[in-house]
Amino acid sequence: MASYDADLQAAVDATSVARDAGIAAEADLVGYLRQQLAEREVETADEAWLQRTVEAIIADPNYMIETEPNDFVSQRKQQDG
Fold it and tell me: Which member of 10, 21, 30, 39 has the lowest number of beta carbons within 10 Å of its beta carbon?
């Protein structure tokens, strides 16, 4: 089983909850996910990953990430050296 960054999963979870609660409309989910990532100090320009992740959230509200953005660098790995 692969493991992925907790900040990425937390941003995905928050986006899913916002969708379910009606806080974020489906049309705005990519922007909402981007905002959630920024709040966790995660930046990505990987638009394809953002779009795939939103599509997966729509299909499965309990979606667990399967990949990381192609330009992702874990803050935890940087801190650990």
Answer: 21
